[in-house]
Amino acid sequence: MPLSEDEQRILRQIEQELEADPTFSERGYRVSRKRLVLLTFGLVAGLVLTVAGLAVSFWLAFAGFIGVLVMAVLLEQEVRVVGREKLGNLPINAWLAGAGRQRPSE
C-alpha cells in the first residue's frame, strides 16, 4: 500500500531531522569483542566452578550455577545484537529474496 502525500511529507521531515542530528549515529549500540570474550570466559569459569564446587560444597556449586545463568543471559543478549547488526547490513534484495521464496509443490 503506497504512502499518502501527507505520510510521505512527514517521513521526509523525520529523515531530515535525523540527518541534522549530529549525535544520532553515535546512539547505536555497539558490541565490543572484549565484552564477548569476557562473557564467554565467565561462562566457562562458572561451569568449572559448578562442577568443581560439587566436590566441595553444594552452596559453592549453586553459586557457580547462578553465575552460569547470568553469563549465559548476558552473552545471549550480546550475540542477538551482533546478529541484528549483521542483518541490518544486508542489502534489501537479500530481505526480499528470502520473503519471496516459495517451496516447490510436491
Please give a structural write-up.
- This protein has 106 residues and is mainly α.
- The protein has helices spanning 5-20, 33-56, 58-88, 92-100.
Mean pLDDT: 78
Query: What class, by secondary structure content?
Result: mainly alpha
* Beta-strand proportion: under 5%
How many DSSP E strands? 0
- Give helix and strand order, one letter per element, not per position: HHHH
The helicity comes to over 70%
Low-confidence stretches: none
Number of helices: 4
Rg, rounded, reads: 23 Å
- Tell me about the largest β-sheet: none
Shape: elongated
Amino- and carboxy-terminal Cα gap: 33 Å
Lay out the secondary structure.
Elements: H1 5-20, H2 33-56, H3 58-88, H4 92-100
Please summarize what this structure is.
The chain is an all-alpha fold and 106 residues long.
Labels describing this entry:
elongated, mainly alpha
